[in-house]
Structure formats: C-alpha cells, structure tokens
Please model this.
Amino acid sequence: MTGRPRVAIVVFPGSNDDRDAAWALGALGADVDLVWHAEYELPEGVGAVVLPGGFSYGDYLRVGALASLAPIMGAVRRFADAGGPVLGICNGFQILCEARLLPGVLRPNRQLEFVCRDVVVRVETAQTLFTRRCVEGQELVLPVKHGDGAWYADEGTLMQLAARGQIVFRYTEDVNGSLGNVAGVTNEAGNVMGLMPHPEHAVDPLLGSADGGLILAALVDAAAAHALATA
Amino acid sequence: MKVTVLIRPKQGILDPQGEAVEGSLRKLGFDVHGVRVGRVVDFELADDTDARARVERMCAELLANPLIESFEIELHDA
Model:
C-alpha cells in the first residue's frame, strides 16, 4: 500500500484511451492498474473503476454490446452493486448502457458524421461523486470524439432521470442528436456514471482545457473514500 | 434448425442511416420513402428443443437492444 488511491482501468481489445486515462489519474494522485478484459476479478484494494474510450470489439453488433459481456464485466457489476464508483468514458459509457448499469443507449450521431472537437457541457448537478469538485451550472470545456454519441431513452425515462438528478451533464448545443442534449448520466444509486466527452484529454491547460481534471480528481477522491469504507 | 433473426429500428425511432440511404436511392431516381436499415443474423441451432424461446432469449440478452430495436425470428427446418 502506498497510501495513494487505486483505480482500475479496464482494457478491452480496441480500447485506445486507457493510457491517457492512466496518465491523467496518475497525475491526479492515483495508482492505476490496467486490467485486461479477460480477467475475472479486479485487483484487491481498488477504490474505483474506469471503462475507457475506444472501439471495443470493433463496435461489432452495437457499440458496447459485446464488451458488456466480457469476463471482467461480472466483477465490474459486483463492484458497482457494492457501491464502488465506476466511470465510463465514451466507449465506456456505451458499454455501461449495454450492460444496463446505466439507463438509455448510445446511438449513431444524428448527422451520421464522426464528431471530433471541443464542446461545452453544463454541470446539471454537483451532488454526485463525480461532480463534487464542480458547481451546478458550471460550464466545462471537454473534447468529444465519437460516431455513436446520441444518447437515447424514452421521454418518460428522461423526465424521471432529470427529476432524480441523474442527468449530470448536458451539451450547451446540439452535438450529436442526443435526447435533451444529454452528455452524461448516473445510475439511480449515483455511484456509476457515463459521459461521452473525454475528461482525460482535458487535464492540463496545454491541452486546451484542464476542466476534465475536476471530474477525474473527484473520482480519485471517491476511490480513496470507497477503499477506506471497504477496508 | 436454421434460424434467421431480423432486427429493425423500432417504429418511431429515428433512423439516420435509413434516411441517408433513402436520399441516395432518390438521387438514383428511385421514388422511395420510409427507408429503414436493420440487421440480419443467421445461424444454426444444434438442438431444436425450445428453439423459439431460446432465440428470444438470445435477442433479449444480446442480439437486439429492446430500447431501440424490435426483432423477428424465422425458424427453418434444415
């Protein structure tokens, strides 16, 4: 034990943001374990799990669908059920939706074009594990790079999620046809979050924005708290 | 037993791919509307017992996402 919170990043075949996430979380004070998708268990002492961006399993069938059944996902599900913080970024968000750990589903962008640029998202609630370092209404500049980012759920579900504070981020413009411009949601318990923008690519002003650090630093805080609570 | 599963975007769900294909068909001079693009999965079942129920489970657990897709199962005696 080094005393630094430990965060596991799951690596699927086709993940490509795992190392950026590892670098960013390391810079924010975490010890990172890269965990191969074929594993059945998370390393002992892990306080948070990240499912990174990429194109797992070549996006075959539906984005995230095959990865949601990977061997490691059983352990991720148990970790989430026990209250462990889980963050899905981009493809990770798609995987968590397909695994039904998060509500809704990500569909092809409305404009059928890959979108790759900085966007502005508004923090809808600061009452989550992941946005504790933000304030409600704060606008964050984060990059997106996805072809399947249009979040969809039926209208009733969207209203219910909004009422419960499960809509965490909304784009300030229509980026991809996402219902209600939703960019990120949590599960009902609030310990699992997915978002399409990439906080791990926005952790230093040199990269254009350091706003992603607010989200990832909150995850490191949550990892420390969860590890303490379960030690 | 041979199985064909047809997976379609649910009615009322926006299908940008279908719209794009429709636009291209129109450019070719075909007067079409209501184009929807789905997916076909063909496979063989080794054991015919409860075939329909098992294929329905496959659809629910993997082949289709019930939020956005409907499916239709065709069973063919080999």
